[in-house]
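hi! just following up on the protien thing from before. the input was this:
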Amino acid sequence: MGLEGPADPSPRRPPGIDRVHIWDCADTPAGGSELDVHEALELLRTTAGAVACKDCGASVALGPFLAPT
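and the predicted 3d structure came back as:
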């Protein structure tokens, strides 16, 4: 998993929103933080505005683990 964070400028998302990508996503910025799946899930659960990338399928891969039980 890769992380596109507030320090990573991207014209495709509003500033200040973290976006988690699958490791080989074309939208993952160079120099982004690398996360394991547990870190990615924790970030998505606890960081306001954090989202999983829909372009690369991170949202499909991680979504079931984030769904309310």
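The CA atoms of residues 52 and 59 lie 5 Å apart.
The chain has one domain: 2-60.
cheers
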